[in-house]
Each structure stands twice: as C-alpha cells, then as structure tokens.
Design a protein that fits this description.
The protein folds into 2 domains: 281 residues, 2-methylcitrate dehydratase PrpD (Orthogonal Bundle), CATH 1.10.4100; 125 residues, 2-Layer Sandwich (60s Ribosomal Protein L30, Chain: A), CATH 3.30.1330.120. Helix content is 48%, strand content 7%. The chain has a 4-stranded mixed sheet with strand order 4-3-5-6, covered by helices on one side. A two-stranded antiparallel sheet has the order 1-2. α4 packs antiparallel against α10, α13 runs parallel beside α17 and α20 packs antiparallel against α21.
Length: 457
C-alpha cells in the first residue's frame, strides 16, 4: 500500500477552515441570514406537512427516536427526521437558491443540523456554527464547476448537499479535523440524485434534499466513529466531481479561500414564488404585462429570450412544457409559469395545483410561448427574465428583468420573509398564536439550549 500524500487535500483544507470557525466570531449579517433561513425552512415544512408526498414519506418510515419532524406529532431517529424535514422544505420548490450554482442550501443543511443537535444534545451556538458552515460550503461547492452537474443529468443540491450536510453535521457535533475529513469522504459515496423527474413530474426531486440530509447524518457519524473516507473525495481522479460533473478541472480555490471571512451565503435568494428558480423573473415580467392591461385573449404569441443552461430543464421538450403532466411538472415549465401568472395574477402555492395544471385557459396561453437562446445570457451568475408579446392586433410589447427578485440586487427584507412564513403556516394550518410565538423566539434560537418540541404537531 502506498504511503498517503503529504499534500493537503481540498477536504483537509476545508476542514481546517471550518474547525477554526467560532460561533461568537460569526458576523451579525451572517447570523441574520441563518435566522432568515431557519424561518423559511420551518414555514416550508409546515406548508407541506399534509401534502400527498409527505404523507407517503411518513407512511414509509418508522416513528420513534426523539427527533422532531416539523409539523408532525410523532418523533423519529435523527436521519429520518432530517429526511422528512428536508423533503418538506424543498417539496414545493419555494426554498432559497444560491445563484452562482444553482443550489438550494437550507433544505439540506438546516434539517441536518437540527436533527444532529437534537439527537446529541448540542445547543444553539453549535447549531449556528453548523448551519453557517454547511450553507457557506454548499454555496462554494456549487461554483467549483458551475452547470456541469446539471448538464450531466444530476441534481446539484442532492449531490453537493450530501457533502455540505456532512460538514454541517460534523461542525455541529464537534468532530475533530480527522473525523470531519472522513465524514466528507464517506459522504461522497452516498451522494446522488438524477433529474429524470423532469420527464413526467415525479416526486423524486422533492426527496433529494431530504435524502442528502439523512445521508449527511450517517456520514458524520461514520466519520466520528473512525470509518475511513477518501481525503481526495472532491478533486480526486475518481472523486465526486469526476463522477457527477464528468471533470476534475475546476476552481477548487473558491471552496476554501477566505472561508470564514468572505460570505457567499449573504447573497442567497429567497423566492417570492412557489416554483423553479429560473422561472421567477419571467413571472415578474408576466405580472407587469397583466397589470398594464394585457389580457390572455389579446395574446397572439409570446417569445422569450433564455439561457442555454436551463433549456433542457425548463423549455424542452416544448410540447410537454406547453401541457405539463401534472402540477409538479408545471413548476418546471417556463411557458406554464408565464401563463399561470398572467391568468391568475400570482404564482404562490395555490397557482400550482392539479386544477390549474388542467385549466384550458392557462394551457392555451402556455401553448403560445416560444423561446430563443441568448448566447450572452449571464446564467448562472444571474437569472434574467424576458417576454416579448405580440398581440392579436399586431402590437408588440416587451418586458425585461435583469435579475431575480429576492436576491442580492433586490433582496427580500426580514419583514418580507416573515410574511412569507406566515403565509406558509396559514397554508399548513398552524394557529396564528403559534406562528407569532415562533417568530418571537427566533432572535434567541442560537443563544442557549435547543428545544425543538414546540415545532411538533
């Protein structure tokens, strides 16, 4: 057996950075972002708690174990609680996005850390350090080889989230540097998540963050117990990026340089609409056209400029995007998103139902939407929207949006995020007093002992 290399691996450098991070040294804006992500995740879990896919998931697992599944009375082992919470947080595609990737960070990391801290008795300070470490790492992982994982047919949130989640759990659980490296090495062999859900609107994408969260708990516990994982899990000849991005040629420095000093997570986007990230600016354009007085019946044709990077997910095959198979498939159809916003005046949870997915007025408008690829589109650095409407009388009207609302260029305020939380909890039938009690508790959540029992039921 060859002696191990003396050169530090990317994972070892990252583990050193994370090990050095102290909760009291986390800047106030980063803590604020962690609180916002916590609020968003809890609300999303409540909103999804009685959906058909969460009911099916809960029916498939065994209760018992003492860890909280948000919005459910029963308790579970740590991995199962993380699975349920991660699936619920991502289930309606209403969770946060990091534009540089893209990845959805909190749907993996927050469930991992809550479950790990609850299971092993760690406090709010440990939870803060774990959440911040994992969220920041996932944002950075997504920039190593942007777009490549999606292009290869995998879900970056699921693939990279398993590694970032293992890092988050390791930090929250107080693992040492060697244990942390092994945890990340083991996580690489647990990662996965194909994007074939796009074909017919299957539920598997909803599960991806939850499964990544569950795997993260297992990987961290293996590392804690001394189970050896490869040091070069990321950059190695047969490492994670080789397997899922089909290349090891990437910018690994973005993962480690200034970690703990520069915070990419501050630019995370909170979604205004309950649908795919790249659809959001198109919805804003559609709503402005609707507000200007244009009616669906006035429209002869709609042409949209778009990025090549998400044609295969949101535009093709065009015929099936014009008539999505079901409400979930509709979330990954830009033509449907434009049409449902135009016809109904919104794109919240109620816009994506089996009724709207079969509404002939919406589908008729969606069938008039076409696209052209803009080779200069900045995706994934920014998500843009463009709609050019040709009316029945020949008049042409155009709307553009250079960025996603809710992101760094037009962020949602804390009040906006709390309003979204209230709406999600109302959808999930949580009493108003309970909702306000949680919001009052958030500023102290990361300061003392962690008690999640109030989130049950």
């Amino acid at each position: 057996m060859n002696a191990p290399s003396l050169t530090q691996s990317v994972t070892e450098i990252l583990a050193d950075k994370v090990a050095a991070l102290r909760p009291e040294a986390i800047p106030a804006p980063v803590r604020e972002r962690a609180e916002q992500l916590l609020i968003d995740v809890v609300g999303l879990c409540v909103a999804a708690r009685d959906t058909d896919y969460i009911r099916a998931l809960v029916a498939s697992v065994d209760p018992g174990g003492g860890c909280t599944a948000i919005g459910h009375a029963a308790t579970y082992d740590a991995g199962t609680a993380a699975l349920i919470n991660g699936t619920a947080a991502h289930g309606e595609d209403f969770d946060d996005t990091f534009e540089g990737g893209p990845v959805h960070s909190s749907a993996v990391v927050v469930p991992v850390v809550l479950a790990a801290c609850e299971r092993f008795g760690h406090d709010g300070r440990s939870a803060l350090a774990g959440i911040v470490s994992g969220i920041e790492a996932l944002c950075r992982l997504s920039m190593v080889i942007p777009k490549a994982i999606h292009k290869a047919g995998f879900h970056p949130t699921s693939v990279l989230g398993t590694v970032a989640g293992a890092l988050a759990a390791s930090k929250a659980m107080g693992l040492d540097r060697k244990q942390m490296v092994d945890a990340l090495g083991n996580a690489g062999s647990m990662a996965g998540g194909i994007i074939e859900y796009l074909a017919e609107g299957a539920w598997t994408k909803r599960m991806h963050p939850g499964w990544a969260a569950k795997a993260s708990i297992v990987a961290a516990r293996l590392g804690q117990s001394g189970f050896l994982g490869p040091r070069t899990v990321l950059e190695g000849t047969h490492g994670l990026f080789h397997g899922f991005a089909r290349s090891v040629e990437g910018d690994y420095s973005v993962l480690t340089v200034d970690f703990g000093r520069k915070w990419y997570m501050e630019s995370i986007t909170f979604k205004p609409y309950a649908t795919g990230t790249m659809n959001q600016p198109y919805i804003d354009c559609a709503l402005r056209l609707r507000a200007s007085g244009v009616r669906a019946e006035d429209v002869k044709e709609i042409l949209c400029e778009t990025a090549e990077g998400y044609v295969h997910r949101l535009w093709e095959p065009l015929a099936s995007k014009h008539r999505p198979a079901n409400a979930y498939a509709a979330k990954f159809s830009t033509p449907f998103n434009i049409a449902v916003a135009f016809v109904t005046g919104g794109a919240g949870l109620s816009a994506f139902t089996e009724q709207t997915a079969k509404d002939e007025r919406i589908l008729a408008l969606a069938s008039k939407v076409r696209y052209v690829v803009d080779p200069k589109n900045p995706y994934p650095r920014a998500y843009t929207g463009h709609i050019q409407v040709t009316l029945q009388n020949g008049k042409v009207i155009e709307e553009r949006q250079p960025h996603i609302r809710g992101g760094v260029h037009e962020p949602l305020t804390r009040a906006d995020i709390e309003a979204k939380f209230r709406g999600n909890c109302e959808h999930g039938k949580w009493p108003k007093e309970r909702v306000e009690r949680f919001l009052r508790a958030v500023p102290k959540f990361f300061d003392g002992p962690l008690d999640l029992s109030s989130l049950r039921g």
